[in-house]
Amino acid sequence: MHGVGGTTAQDMLGDPRVQLITGDDTAACYRRTEDADAEERPGDYRGEPVREAYCWSNLTSGNGARALWLILVPFMVANLAHWMRPAAPPDHRAQRIYDLLVRMLALTLTVLLAAAACEVALDLTAWQCAGTPVCVAGKSWLGFLSPDNGGWWSAPGRRLALAAVVPLLVIGFLWWLSHRTWSAYESASPPPRVPGSSRYTPDAERTALSLEGFWYGRRLVARLRAAHTTAGVLTIAAVLLAAGAKADGAGGHYSVLAVTGRALTAVVILLAAATLVVVWRTARSEAAPDEESDRLVVRALPYAALVVLGLIAVHSGWARPGSHSYGPLPGAAAFGGIAVFQGVLVLALAVTAWVLQRAAARDDDARTALRGMGGPAVALLACAVGGVLSGGVAQRFADWMDGGATPGQAHAPIPGPPVLLSWQASAIPALLVVCAVVAVLAAVRVLIVRRRVAADVPGLYDPREHPDHRRTRAIAGTIARAGLTDAAPVLVAATSAVTLVLGAGAVAGAWLTDRAPGRATEGAPPVVHAAAETAESLGSWLMSAGVILLLAMGRRAYRDHSARRTIGILWDVGTFWPRAAHPFAPPCYAERAVPDLTWRMATWTERFDGRLVISGHSQGSVLAAAAVWQLDLVTRSRVALLTYGSPLERLYGRWFPAFFGPPALTGLHREMDDWRNLWRFTDPIGGPIRLTCEDGRRVDQGPLRDPLAFGRTLRNPLPAQILGHGDYQADPVFDTVRAELIARLGPGLPGMPEQRPAGGHPDGRPAQGSSGRSSA
């Protein structure tokens, strides 16, 4: 199995002639053409393994639609926070609280997205610009909305009702994208299993990844999709109601419209409460695949919200003589309320994570990233990224609409976006300064480590090789830079802490002054005023630059296959996990890949009474381990695992301790036939597994030498390449270790119980076609 970069079957099998064995264009298993019918010719493969390659790169970088996932970054990061909870006992009460808080935080991100779309379409376009003759001038596409035109659409309520189509299309697009990927990923059924036994069955070392329903999120994602779609539609409805309530209250003689508005508001509140109940009760059911269908009330919730939105649009468009739009759209302060509520949720999540971390206290907790606070830190970053994207779009759109005038100034044609967005933009330069300081400290660390490591590099090689100072520095520098991966928690912690402080300051400044930072500091000393204006202007451009960069990357990815593949790689780690918190996050490719691998291993070993070595590089090693966990215990003991460049402990074990912590990895090692892991100091992603088991079997093989040759010799006249994270097969140790694993499996089954794996005969008789072969 290849890693995040993706490798063709021809390269993995070392033969240009390959044949698809099972699968499709998205993910499939291949063999060399001459090995396609190996099971029919057992005599030709006595003692020889049959090699097979599983290619899954199209799950993450297959077509241009993947570029659209770039706008879903906040949702993906929030979903990661769900899986970063500390490794407390599964029955701990705080587990449910943690999961609920993350789901609620994810719901606020959907509301923020809908509010940002309403800000652009309803507030800046239909309310502010279309109602201002100076702003409409030169924009022919807005002429029919202008009050000077006197047309039917010139009434403020009708303009808003028409503009509401834009945010509704955004929500509809996210619903469609989630439904489309849901049918292709979450609906892949897991293989059937029967209870088995193994040489080791310690309950304390079980992990959720071994449960039958872990990779089957069909019902959960469907329920969350209904709830989030409803929340987005209700956000649009609330904006329309706020504008209508202001007009009805100002006139004083629209009693019927006022009463109708209050009734519609009550219906919106009722649907919002139902949405919260759905999110509250939507917890993962992992013990077994959840095949039940949702109740009619859950499935009908989005349609009910659409009907109510239609009624509110009619209510908003009802004739109100003399009404006009001025100032910002009512309800703009909701952005501050969303930010405060998100901050409260993050703080509650941090307290819950602290409680769980205390319950999970072990001797190996020192390796856990941020001592269990990784989830709250990442959740805060998800909120920050969501705020930057929404604020950046609003800021740039406002600049385009008002001809570049500074929003909030007296000469500006329109008031512009909410003041809070300007304060949040002003905080970005300070945040970048902190990141720059951390980057400088990281560079200093690289220099120090390189100098210390350089003295030891020549001792790793044959002393007869000619020493080379520049070569030594290059190797030592690679090792030092690879070590920065272990310092990632420091960067996340610093960024999160500063983001929390600056975010709180931005909300306080916006609420206390109700003016943008530049105008709020007009009476301050010149240095303070100049700094505030600079931060506001620079931050606005930085927010916009982030949005433009995402759009440019998406456009390039749609046109360029290589760029599309690169962007797909960025999602491989973030989209490994199921969509447990946010249904609009990019889909979980593992919900297709893991069942694929499990089906293939279980059915092959059953049909041919075989044993196999499954080898995986980088992210492929994580998929391999997850697939082995899904096997029944009997089949699992027929399997040996070979990982190389593996982030199982270095990334997943540290950031996701509840699922890849030392107890879980130790249990996996014990229940398999054997496991070997290859790693290098120069690898910035892979690392050792760090397992110590009482049976004495070693997992880690390394560190391997990289490069294989230090200097120029008669055997290696040219400098050898520093491989880092790639091409582990080039090291002779790879072939040696794989041969040892295959030999360990041997022609017979070592210590196997009498029970059969899934699909076997209930009386334990062997399957037809048994040949005793092993597959690599």
TrEMBL record:
InterPro entries registered for this protein in UniProt: AB_hydrolase_fold (IPR029058)
SUPFAM superfamilies: alpha/beta-Hydrolases
Segments for region (Disordered): 746-776
Source superkingdom: Bacteria
Residue stretches spanning the membrane: 67-85, 97-117, 160-177, 226-245, 257-280, 300-319, 331-356, 377-398, 427-448, 490-512, 538-558
Plastid listed as a keyword: no
Coiled-coil stretches: none
Keywords: Membrane, Transmembrane, Transmembrane helix
Protein name as catalogued: Integral membrane protein
Organism: Streptomyces siderophoricus
